[in-house]
Each structure stands twice: as structure tokens, then as C-alpha cells.
Amino acid sequence: MIELINVEKYFKKPIRGKGVWGMFKTLFSRKHTLVKAVDGVSFTVGDGEAVGYIGANGAGKSTTIKMMSGILTPTRGEILIDGKRPYKSRERNAVLKTIGVVFGQKTQLWYDLPLTETYDLLRYIYDVPEADYKRRIGELTELLDMKPFMDAPVRTLSLGQRMRADLAAAMLHNPKTLFLDEPTIGLDVLVKRKLIEAINELKNQYHTTLILTTHAMSDIELLCDRVIVLDAGKILFDGSLEKVKHMFGDKRNVTIQTPAPIDVSAVVDKYEIENVSTDGDGLLTTFTIDAQKLKIDVLLDVLLKSYKVVDIKLSETGIEQVVEKIYADVKSDDDAAIEAEGGAQA
Amino acid sequence: MRRGAIKRYLIFTKAGFQTLMAYRGRIFLWFVGALISAVLMSLLWRAIYSFSDEPTIGGYTYSQMLLYVIVSAVMFEVTVSDTMGAIVDDVRYGQIGMRLMKPISYRLQLCFTNIGNYLGRLLIFGVPFMTAGTLIAVYGFGLTGLTWYNILLFIPASFIAMMINEAYDFLFGQLAFRTHAMFGVNSMSMTISGFLSGRMIPLSVFPVWAQKVLNCTPFPFMMSMPVRLYLGVMSTNDVLISFAVAIAWLIAINIIGQLCYKTSVRKVVVFGG
């Protein structure tokens, strides 16, 4: 079980002057601002739960993961992983043996060694008994389809191969908890899907607790049952995936390019369209719909019949839009509460 | 340390050894580098000896000086430490967080990896180069005074020299947590140790007062002492004392390094991986 109790992490950041002279002055200045990367976060994750930990860039996700995996010490508050604090030197190794970490932007593999040697190294680091090791490496090799590059030095692997290899490295000691920090970053759609499927299978097979940060909503949908949304170091939302979907719906964006600005009122009046925005001197028009209420093929049909369309682009909503929406909802709830309170007092 | 724990770190020695073998071109370049350095230095000393009226300089005959130059060139390539480079890479490429996230000591990991490097360098480079150099000095230039036990004792002496070198490198390497100007730090620390350890010129040509001062530092044990041991110019008494002092320095530098590391690592911990 993972417990975070009022965790805060502040960074000191020197105030930098502008230009060469400003930079020079910074050298001798001790002035700094306090950046609250994580600002009073509390949550509990039970064994075997899969949590999507999302937020815009700089929301404090990675900082939280780094604190949970023992490389950052919280400024205030407490983190307990099965009752042990990862940032205390005495309890650290015990915690580190029960967690696995995959950072999409970094690797834990040894660049110059063949993959098999890296795994051998990890076996000793984590004291994995030989029989367990053999069995698990067999399973992982098959599941992640790593056979073709098992003997290749890590530096020669492609990004997709490396991510799979990194995932296997994180799972080798059968950790109780797996932290995944943007594991699908930079991967193409096919490789991404395969990786997510593999993670899902690992999770079910080993009953691993999962904490995942990502910018792809599809990753969350496939893997997580619960979502925690972080914004500016504070928890904005903590609830089930269903609730997020319910709040947000199944949103799609359809962008069409036309040779001249168009009049959208005919379409908007007739069909259930949530939002219309234009860009590029009115030549690019984006229709946002809820795919549950209006089928995408119906909309495309209507658009193609109504306008002279040069180009079409379909896109899913990103995490940023989800956060924005949740933020707006939470805020309006707060406002309503304040108003209600004010009304009662009056 | 438990037996299992030692085994866990020895695997890094194996990895260091393997990493070393990963680049054939690099091994070839050391050969060329050491060869050029040894040839140039021996020519330079040849010129110096021909202008000198004395048969010896700093107590060395020309044939001894020739072997000094060869052995120190080999020693340098064999005992050079990869620790600072490893820290710099780990910090620059953001791997440091991943390394610190492992349930093992980062310090020992570096140290044991470097032992693997040392063994690899000694085996594929040190042994053949030293053998060739010694044969040339003995049969080509009539060098005498080498003994089997001195040559055997050279192995532990060079090991301790490598370990001191590594601890010294770790001490400076920690600056990577605080500054990006590691190229400067590296060349500074290399120049200091290169000059003061007797790699560039034997310490016996330094003024007497300078030799006295240097004998109170760890530098002679990084190069000069093992080379002199190999040449057979040290008395038995001197050898025994030198080993004791070298080990004492090794322990002392590691303790200082560990104390500094405690504050350095907090720096990493503050700024994140």
C-alpha cells in the first residue's frame, strides 16, 4: 500500500537577471524564489490498484514519482510504501527492492552491455533467485518479443526496443509496485499499443500496483481504473476512470480545411455539436463532438456534403483538455458552493 | 560486507571488464597513445642525457630512465580512472536518478566497475606492453637490477595506485553535482596528479625540499612508487613502509570522499534526477 500524507516539495530557484549583466549579478546573488512543485498532496493507493497520475507539464507528477522512489526527499509530509519511507536511508533499500521504475525519457540499462548482461547485473542487484530469474526472463522475453535483440548492446536498440527492454528490467525482480513515468513518449502508435498491452498483461499476471503518468488519454483508458489529476502541485481530482469519462464524455475533434471561410450555423443548429472554433484566417474549422451522442461518420458525411473540404483531421482529446475541463468543473463547483454559502449567510 | 553483497558488486567488475572490451578502436588508441608518449619521452631523455656530463640524472641511468618512461606510460593507461567520467555522464544524461534508485551503493558500484576496467586494461594492454618494454630495456640497453619479486610486487602496488587514483577521481568527480565545467575540473585534477605523481618527470629530479613535501602527499603512491618498485631502486624497508603509507592514504581519501559525498548527494536529491 502506498500512502502520501500532506506531501510538499519546494525547490529554491535563483532569481535570474536579464541579459549578460543580469546573469553576472546572479552569480553573486543569493536571492531566490520558492517553487512549490508539490503542494500538499495526499492519497492512498491499495495493492493491485492501477492509477493514472495525470496533469499538464510541470504539474508535479514526476516530482511525486521521484519522491516515492526515494531520489527526492519531501520538504514536508510523509510517504509510506508498505509502511516504509523511501527517502530515509535506513528504510530506503527495503523500499527500493519492492518497486520498479520506468522513465520514458531515461534508461536504467547499461549502454555498452548486451541486454542479457544488463539483466544478469540486475539479478544480482536485486538478489533474484536463479530459478525465479530464469522463469521470469523467459516470460518477459516472450511477452515483450525481445528475442531478436537480447544479445545486442543497448546502445544499438531502437527506442521501441529500448522501452520494452526497460520495462522488462523494471519487472525482473517482480516488484510490488511499478512506477511508469511517460512510458510511451515518442513511440509510434503500433509500438505504443503493444507496450500498453504488455503492461496490462503484466499487471494482471503479477498483480502489480501501477502508477502511471502520461500525456496520452488512451494509455490511461487501457490501463487504469482510477485517475488522479494534479495541477500546480495540488490534487484537482481523484476518482474512478468512469467518473472522468462521465464528466468529460468521449470527445473528438474534427478539423476541416476549406478554401474560404464557412458559415457553420446550418450544421450547428441541426446536430449536437459541443464547440466550434476557427483558426488560420477562418480556413480551419474545428468541430468538437461527444462521440456517444453524435456518430463521427454522420458528422463527416454532413461536413463533406455541406462544404467544399480540402483537408480533414481527426484528433482525440489530450490530457491537457481533460485537465482544463476538470479544472473548470471543479472551479464552478467551488464558486457554486461559495455562492450557496454566501446566500445562506445573507 | 556479506558474501552475497560482495558478489553483487563483483558483477560490476565483470561489467566494467566487458564494457572495456566493447570498443576495439579504443583499445587500439591506447596502444598508439602510450607508444607515442613512451617513444617521445625516451627520445627527449636521450637528448638530455647526451648533453649531461653525469651518467645518471636523478639517480637513474639512461636504461633505467627508459624503462621508467615506458612503465609510467603503461601505468597511466592502466590505472587511469573512469569514475569521474561515469559520474559526469550520469549527471549530464540524467541517469543519476536511475542509478540512485537501485538498492545498492552508487559509490561502490563506481569503484567496482573501475576495478573491472583496470583488470581489462592490465590484461589486454599492460602485460604485453610492459613485457615488450622490459625486454627492450634489458636486452637492448643493458638494464640490470630487475628482480622477480619486485616485478610481482608491482602488481599489488599498481592495484593500490589505481585505487588511490580512483578515490581521488571520485573526490573531484563529485563536483559534477555542482558544476557543468567538468572538462576544466578533469584537466586540472589530471594535471595536478600527473605532475606531482611523477608521471611527467621522475620525482627524484625535483629539488630535495619539493620531494620532502611530496612524500607527505598521496601523489607519489599513484605513480612514482610502483614504478620505482618495478625498477628495483627501492630498499626492502622502503618498500614495506611505502605499502603501509599507500594503504593509509587509500583509506583516508576514501573517508574524505565519503564525507563529501554525503553533502553532494543531497545536492542531487534537492535538484532531482
Q: What general form of chain A does the structure show? A: globular
Largest interface: A-B, 32 and 26 residues
How much helix, percentage-wise, in residues of chain B?
A: over 70%
Tally of extended strands of chain B? 0
- Number of DSSP strands of chain A? 13
Helix content of chain A: 40-55%
Mean pLDDT of chain A: 84
How does the overall form of chain B come out from the CA principal axes? globular
Please, how many domains of chain A? 2
Describe this structure in words.
The complex is a heterodimer of chains A (346) and B (273). Chain A has 346 residues and is of the alpha/beta class. Chain A folds into 2 domains: 45-246, Rossmann fold (3-Layer(aba) Sandwich), CATH 3.40.50; 249-319, Alpha-Beta Plaits. Chain A is built from 12 helices and 13 strands. Chain A has helices spanning 19-28, 61-68, 89-96, 115-125, 130-143, 159-171, 189-206, 217-223, 241-248, 265-270, 296-306, 319-345; strands at 2-14, 32-45, 50-54, 76-81, 99-103, 177-181, 209-213, 226-231, 234-240, 251-257, 275-279, 284-290, 311-316. Chain A has a 6-stranded mixed beta sheet with strand order 5-6-7-3-8-9, sandwiched between helices. In chain A, helix 6 (159-171) runs parallel beside helix 7. The longest helix of chain A is centred in the last third of the chain and has 27 residues, at 319-345. The mean pLDDT of chain A is 84. In chain B, 76% of the residues lie in helices and 0% in strands. Chain B has 11 helices and no strands. The longest helix of chain B has 36 residues, at 106-141. Chain B has one domain (3-271). The two termini of chain B are 28 Å apart. Chain B has helices spanning 3-21, 24-51, 62-79, 83-92, 96-100, 106-141, 148-173, 182-196, 208-214, 224-231, 236-271. Chain B is globular. Chain B has 273 residues and is mostly helical. At the A-B interface, helix 2, helix 3 and helix 4 of A face helix 1, helix 5 and helix 11 of B.
Q: Strands, helices and their partners?
A:
The complex is a heterodimer of chains A (346) and B (273).
Chain A: E1 2-14, H1 19-28, E2 32-45, E3 50-54, H2 61-68, E4 76-81, H3 89-96, E5 99-103, H4 115-125, H5 130-143, H6 159-171, E6 177-181, H7 189-206, E7 209-213, H8 217-223, E8 226-231, E9 234-240, H9 241-248, E10 251-257, H10 265-270, E11 275-279, E12 284-290, H11 296-306, E13 311-316, H12 319-345
Parallel strand pairs in A: 3-7, 3-8, 5-6, 6-7
Antiparallel strand pairs in A: 1-2, 1-4, 8-9, 10-12, 10-13, 11-12
Chain B: H1 3-21, H2 24-51, H3 62-79, H4 83-92, H5 96-100, H6 106-141, H7 148-173, H8 182-196, H9 208-214, H10 224-231, H11 236-271
Helix pairs in contact in B: 1-6, 2-3, 3-6, 3-10, 4-7, 6-7, 7-10, 7-11
